[in-house]
Write a structure and sequence with these properties.
This protein is of the alpha/beta class and 452 residues long. The chain folds into two domains: 264 residues, Rossmann fold (3-Layer(aba) Sandwich), CATH 3.40.50.1100; 136 residues, Rossmann fold, CATH 3.40.50. The protein is built from 20 helices and 13 strands. The chain has a six-stranded mixed sheet, sandwiched between helices. β3 and β4 form a beta hairpin. α6 runs parallel beside α7 and α16 packs across α17. The protein starts with a strand and ends with a helix. The structure holds pyridoxal-5'-phosphate. The site of pyridoxal-5'-phosphate (PLP) has 16 residues, from α12.
């Protein structure tokens, strides 16, 4: 399958090129030329399939023409070494927990898949002395840890993680600054948007590209964002199972998939909009989700676009949900493209919400008090937007995108209750921090890369 650029000025790319280049020559984002719908019988049997099987069937639609079935199955299985369970929080509201991976955030899924696909494409059999592949990644917190851990120890690949100095939590920081081996952390004196700009500029800089093979692992990479659609299918499969079980017990009916006629709503806490974009692809493939809610913190550029029809990026502001502090969400270009540049079409599938830090804190307290469920600041935006947005006859799920322990101090300050740290997170916190200081000036970053 070929990939085109959202800017329309670059040649079509193969999957290998789209994955290794990341960004198209015209600075556009790659989009698959076709989105293959899954057949009706797949959806009929979906509630009875395993997560691995569902994910493989979805992966096959995107990557099946370019990666042999055995390799693709292995990549999917190795990627999903943990579950993404759907948990009932209260009547009509479910939470898709995406924090059971190695770095306790949803980005583990895309990062693990991409590391394995990139390794597949740069395997020695096809290697013609092309040298080490360098992954450049800008992070506002969770991307860096997911990518660094996804690639840790993978031969032939070196990862540079750029992060804004003082703007990620100590717990997030230790997950990519303590690893060593093929992972280098670069501490930029600036914001996340500065980090993103440095990475984007490096990709289009000819001198750097002659000097070293570069690839991006940000959510703009098709190998990171497409696999995120796996867990939306799994969420719906779990929801159908649970809702039908309850309903059929009440009605004393045998299992009947048709009997669930409630509309399913999906609410995604959003920053760079890669995650929700994967969900929108899922809907195009036939996934029965009736509509989406994009939940923002105070960085509400997308929310304002929905209201006004005008997209006006601006510098991000720092919030409690810091992985969503994005002032110019990259994947807006993909959503815009997917809906044929139509504001009306976008609004018919997606609505928005935006919350202040105070509202996020209130929501964390309210949810814990009323349901016993401990949210993190990102999931809190999702929970609240779903709760406020759900209409009669609808049932919904929101994404819990990170474990509350990743924001331990914030969450404990808000609730006054201790948050337990999972063992795999505690292990990172015992490591030694190593990072390279950097200004936000591209000339400095360029000189640094050319010296490597
Ligand atoms: C990255 C991240 C988000 C935002 O996801 P996007 O795909 O950038 O919209 C939300 N929550 C957490 C915890 C994250 O790490």
């Amino acid at each position: 399958m070929n990939y085109y650029s959202t800017n329309g000025q670059a040649p079509l790319a193969t999957l290998e090129k789209a994955v290794t280049k990341g960004l198209a020559e015209d600075r556009g984002l790659y989009m698959p030329e076709r989105i293959k719908p899954l057949p009706k019988d797949f959806f009929d049997e979906m509630p009875n399939l395993s997560f691995h099987e569902i994910a493989y069937r979805v992966a096959d639609c995107f990557f099946g023409e370019d990666v042999p079935a055995d390799d693709l199955r292995r990549i999917v299985t190795e990627t999903l070494s943990f579950d993404c369970p759907l948990v009932k929080v209260e009547e009509g509201i479910y939470c898709l927990e995406l924090f059971h991976g190695p770095t306790l955030a949803f980005k583990d899924v895309g990062a693990r898949f991409m590391a394995r696909l990139l390794q597949y494409f740069s395997s020695p059999s096809e290697e013609t002395g092309r040298g080490v592949v360098n992954v450049l990644v800008a992070t506002s917190g969770d991307t860096g840890s997911a990518v660094a851990n996804g690639f840790l120890g993978v031969e032939g690949i070196h990862v540079y993680v750029l992060y804004p100095k003082g703007k990620v939590s100590p717990i997030q920081e230790c997950q990519f600054t303590t690893l060593g081996q093929n992972i280098t952390a670069v501490e930029v004196d600036g914001t996340f948007d500065d980090c993103q700009r440095l990475v984007k500029s490096a990709f289009v800089d000819e001198e750097i590209n002659v000097h070293m093979r570069l690839t991006s692992a940000n959510s703009i990479n098709v190998a990171r964002f497409l696999p995120q659609s796996f867990y939306y299918f799994w969420a719906v499969a779990q929801m159908l199972n649970e809702e039908l079980r309850v309903k059929n017990e009440e009605l004393k009916l045998p299992y009947q998939p048709e009997s669930l006629n409630r509309q399913i709503v999906c609410c995604v806490p959003s920053g760079n909009f890669g995650n929700i974009c994967s969900a929108l692809f899922g809907k195009r493939m036939g996934l029965p989700i009736s509509r989406f809610i994009a939940a923002n913190n105070r960085n509400s550029v997308f929310y304002e676009y929905l209201q006004s029809g005008e997209y006006r990026p601006r510098p991000s502001v720092a919030t409690l949900a810091n992985a969503m502090d994005v002032g110019d969400p990259s994947n807006f270009a993909r959503i815009y493209d997917l809906y044929g540049h139509s504001h009306e079409a976008i609004c018919s599938d997606i609505s928005g919400a935006t919350y202040t830090d105070e509202q996020i804190a209130d929501t964390i307290r309210q949810c814990l008090r009323d349901t016993g469920y401990q949210l993190d600041p990102h999931g809190a935006c999702g929970y609240r937007a779903l709760k406020e947005g759900l209409r009669p006859g609808e049932v919904g799920f929101f994404l819990e995108t990170a474990h509350p322990a990743k924001f331990k101090d914030t969450v404990e300050r808000i609730t006054g209750q201790p948050v337990e740290i999972p063992a795999r997170l505690a292990a990172f916190m015992r490591g030694q921090k190593q990072s390279t200081p950097m200004s936000k000036d591209f000339a400095d970053f360029k000189a640094y890369l050319l010296s490597m």
